[in-house]
């Protein structure tokens, strides 16, 4: 959990906020102009919450499996995931 939480805290959740905004806009099923308006709002809707929950649970599950193989596997997995996400 810390391997997922620390990078999120260091980036102040910026990428998570963008993911939630995108999910809310696309999940709304509204025309493009309305979807963009939804994405620009500062609140989070149900699609954003569900998406964040599933993504964070998925990240924790993958890292749990990697750390189960050994500390080095987990650490490498966390570094590779962080590097790939920034590219």
The radius of gyration is 15 Å
Low-confidence stretches: none
Number of helices: 5
Largest sheet descriptor = none
DSSP strand content: under 5%
Beta strand count: 0
Q: Return the string of H and E elements.
A: HHHHH
Number of domains: 1
Provide mean pLDDT, rounded. Answer: 89
Our measurement of the CA-to-CA distance between the termini, rounded to an integer number of angstroms, reads 23 Å
Class per helix and strand makeup: mainly alpha
Helix content: over 70%
Task: Write a structural description.
This protein has helices spanning 2-10, 14-27, 32-40, 46-69, 71-86. 14% of the residues are buried. It has one domain. It contains five helices and no strands. It is mainly α. It is elongated and about 45 Å long.
Detail the topology: elements first, then pairings.
Elements: H1 2-10, H2 14-27, H3 32-40, H4 46-69, H5 71-86
Summarize this structure as a short list of keywords or feature phrases:
87 residues, mainly alpha, 5 helices
Brief overview:
With 87 residues, this protein is mainly α. It is built from five helices and no strands.
């Amino acid at each position: 959990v810390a391997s997922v939480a620390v990078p999120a805290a260091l980036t102040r959740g910026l990428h998570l906020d963008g993911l939630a905004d995108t999910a809310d806009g696309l999940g709304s099923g509204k025309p493009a102009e309305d979807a963009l308006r939804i994405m620009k709002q500062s609140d989070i809707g149900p699609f954003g919450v569900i998406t964040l929950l599933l993504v964070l649970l998925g990240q924790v599950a993958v890292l749990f499996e990697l750390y189960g193989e050994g500390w080095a596997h987990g650490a490498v997995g966390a570094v590779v995931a962080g590097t790939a996400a920034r590219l």
